[in-house]
Amino acid sequence: MSDEVFDDLSATEDSLLQSAIADRLRAAGLRPTRQRVALGMLLFGEEDRHVSAEILHAEALMAGEQVSLATVYNTLHQFTGAGLLRELAIDGGKAYFDTNTSNHNHFFIEAESMLMDIPGDSIRVDGLPEPPEGMRVSHIDVVVRLVPKSK
């Protein structure tokens, strides 16, 4: 396949992905601005992932998208509020954003500051207290911290 044909296919795929991201944003009640679509392509273009604002900002800059870190933070919070992302607070102030919004749990590899999904329903939580009057439990976040085994 020639480079020209490959470039045409790549441009078509990008255009289709941009359109799909714009549709997803509209369905979530968000206006698909150029920056939201560009960040959405980085977030939702492939498999589920976990990112911090700093990671996404660096990826956006490498992709040639001129966007400030503040805009990335704002967009991540807008996507979270619209139900497109799930925010996880690790180590107090460090926030990660998960593109998989289903109720699931995580491993946190401390040495790499990396989150991984725990497969399936392998964690069970028993003995939860009754929530206060008028409240219900929406989900429980379990983060299992990992360090290398001692030699």
Question: How is this structure best described in words?
Answer:
With 151 residues, this protein is of the alpha+beta class. The protein has 4 helices and 6 strands; from the N terminus they run H-H-E-H-H-E-E-E-E-E. The strands form 2 sheets. A 3-stranded antiparallel beta sheet has the order 1-3-2. Strand 2 and strand 3 (94-98) form a beta hairpin. The longest helix is centred in the N-terminal third of the chain and has 25 residues, at 3-27. It starts with a helix and ends in a 5-residue tail after the last strand. The model has no long low-confidence stretch (mean pLDDT 88).
Quick recap:
This protein is of the alpha+beta class and 151 residues long. The protein contains four helices and six strands; from the N terminus they run ααβααβββββ. Strands 1-3-2 form a three-stranded antiparallel beta sheet. The chain has a three-stranded mixed beta sheet with strand order 5-4-6, with no helix packed on it.
Largest sheet: 3 strands, antiparallel
What count of helical segments does DSSP give? 4
- Global shape: globular
How far do the termini sit from each other? 50 Å
Poorly predicted ranges (pLDDT <50, ≥5 residues)? Answer: none
Instruction: Give the tally of β-strands.
Output: 6
Broad structural category: alpha+beta
Beta-strand percentage? 15-25%
Estimated radius of gyration: 19 Å
> How would you write the strand order of the largest sheet?
1-3-2
The run of helices and strands is HHEHHEEEEE
Average residue pLDDT: 88
Helix content: 25-40%
